[in-house]
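Build the 3D complex.
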Amino acid sequence: MTDTAIRAGAAGPKYGSMSRDRRWALRWSYFFLVLFAIFFLTPPIYMFITSLKTSAEISAEINPWWVFNPTLGNYIELLTQDTFLRFFRNSAIVSILVVTITMAISVVAAFALARMKFWGSATLATGVFLTYLIPETLLFIPLFKMFAWVNETLGIQLMNNWWTMIILYPTLTVPFCTWIMIGYFASIPKELDEAALIDGATWTQTLTKIFIPVALPGIIAATIFAFTVSWAQFLYPLAFTTSTSELVLPVGIVTTLIKGDVFNWGQIMAGALLGAAPPLIIYAFLMDYYIAGLTAGATKG
Amino acid sequence: MAQVTLRKLVKMYDEVQAVRGIDLDIADKEFIVLVGPSGCGKSTTLRMIAGLEEINSGDIAIGGHIVNDVPPKDRDIAMVFQNYALYPHMNVYENMSFGLKLKRTPKDVIDGRVKQAAQILDITELLDRKPKQLSGGQRQRVAMGRAIVRDPKVFLFDEPLSNLDAKLRVQMRTEIKKVHQKVRTTTVYVTHDQVEAMTLADRVVVMNAGLIEQVGTPNELYHTPATKFVAGFIGSPAMNFLKCSLEQAAGALRVRVSDTLSFPVPADRTQRYTPHVGKANLLLGLRPEHITETRRHTEPNQHDFDMKIDVVEPMGMETLVYFSVGGVELCGRVNPNAGAAEATSMKLLADLNNMHLIDDATGKVL
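Done.
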């Protein structure tokens, strides 16, 4: 009797509806995932298609989604141009140095703000975050004033120099990275640094031997952020650099490949794709570390 | 030689006094357990000994030297935390040797000590595992190993077994006792579990509301509690407390708990209790094991009484019976074969040899 009851239950409407619900939920999620994928992938695909075309084909009235005479001419032309390589080099040096400076400042600052309870530390932590909320569009006019003052009093010309970006970008990256790292350090159990303290570690040793290895995923996340921001920064270099030799990649592409009202679309697209490659490669390499949670096992799991 | 001495120790958090001036002398090689309900200041006291909390006033001495302003690393102590606090990116060997490495101990000395500690704790085969590959009990052992290799003057344990399941807790309790027998280091152990306190300690320190209620061996605390708090805290099920009054009749004392129920006070206590005749706020304290089923041969000062049983809880080796006198629920422990049944009357026996008379106004056991 129980046997029949169970069999009836298995075929009953309740079980059926549950798996049907799940099937529909899956269908909907795939539908929206595909929708988003199309939405976000269309521009880069269109860029890629355009970058393989000659100027004549781009302006011709034919199907824009197909390449009839594929050519690598745009890429070759860009990569053999001294100016483009110069932009790339400027961007690379600026980004690498900015990331280094940012991480050096924000990891130490976050450690102090998260762990050494001193007078005003909580206020300071909030203050750090608030500075991040000020838009850069508000800052570049006072920055002009400051640069002029520096030039007058110290005789250092900050205008129209690519290395000025190394000083400017950390004002955008340090607050946010410090904020991320404060969050990460705060999630490390307090007992861990107390154990290190009793084991005889100094604050510096606690930071280098315990906190940095344990918070590595957070440090990688902050590094990716700092790199992306400084690689893609547009407004400051546009405002503060003018000579072709001092431009970074995003501004360089726009200012040298658009001459008056002539848009060199093929090269613009090829340049933009080449410019997007480094962050993509960095993401691909660091993603695994980023996702792997290293704190597992420190305390009760 | 490492005695630990606390003198008039005070800890304030803003306006709240967490520890309110405690004195304690811990002998060399002694296993001391601080026990009390949460918020009683036991963990704060331990953390002050460790140097993780600053003290507001008073003195802490380890091995005869005052260490009030000595940083934790120079106090020569080792601490085991409730959540183990193992370094997640290091394997077991590295976890255990971290402290020694910082002290620039020679490699072969480190190796010897780690291997020896691993042997004591039976974790030799785990040395190259990461903490996340270990079970809770194994992590607890590693945390203890990290303490042992440093060969400190004092071990500090902060509720080390609270994160383990019941069965493992009992096992690790025995383990800790064995380790202490082998290593013989002065140990201060904090727990809220009175069974842990009783089983592990040479002496137990019962704390309540930032003060020490009583210090004594487990048996002293159990049989001669100094205060109502200790009497009620130690022992499970807890001691029964009944409002009572003392009556004097023909040179003998009777303790009356209700209009219909009173017991003669044992003759050897008559002199001690006589000054309290007629006092208000008296409580009779009697542990559940001293309320049993009636027996054919009773000893002096054991008295029968009839009582209607409200609830019966069979535990296997014994049966707990609950009944009420004057609106207060009481518990007794009877033989499983005594035939206790709910909502029926039963003849019980009160063993007044083990009674406690408590002044409820002061909380003192008289």
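The radius of gyration of chain A is 27 Å.
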